[in-house]
Amino acid sequence: MSGKPARPRRYAAVEENMKVPYGLEIIESCSGCNCRKPGFFCDFSEPVTKALDQASHRSILPAGAILFVEGQVPRGLFVLCSGKVKLSTSSRDGKVLILKTAQAGEALGLSAAISGDTYEMTAETAMPCQVNFLDRKALLNLLQLHSEVGLHAAQSLSRDFQSAYRDIHDLVLARSSAGKLARLLLSCSPRPIEQADEVRLRSAMTHEEMAQRIGSSRETVTRLLSDLKRKQLIRLDGATLVIRDRTALEALAV
Fold it and tell me: Fewer CB within 10 Å of terminal CB in the chain, N or C?
């Protein structure tokens, strides 16, 4: 017999897992990325994508990693390749308000990186993530050389503004904490093409995170969730929150 002996399957499996830290599909370059979709900040033409590749640095981060902190002088821009990132702000007494959860394809810290002003919020990974970092000097250079980058930056900032406007409207004008919580739960649930009897939330949040999203306390959120369960608007399926009556929840959110 010739050739190398077959590697035992268990060692091959370990070797394969070593190539994918945190179970992520590693994106080696922007040019070879298959994850880009229309609307992604990094969905550039091939020449601009190559320029971004040469100027940026990719890294894999665990959950709980801090990309930047509110009030910090901007080092540059982070493009989220995969995973989710929590964006939050805090008051002087330490009260935290989660502004949004960024998804893959979003540019984080863009406004501060362009203006040179401090970061407006804190960015923390909510799960293992892959990010692409572009320092401020390289970003400004790309903006000057490629109008396409400027257009994508303007579109990204416009989406951020519209999202912030809607969130402020919902947070300030909702009639009650119950209405704010109902809006939050509905925003986390997919809108079914056909009316379903029950809707399972795409992602679970702790009571503390829900409180930080609606500007309330954890105790209030716990009480409100108990009221919704008692009225049979929601139920818990293990760790998954299920909306049992979307119509009633929408009426509460008005």
Answer: N
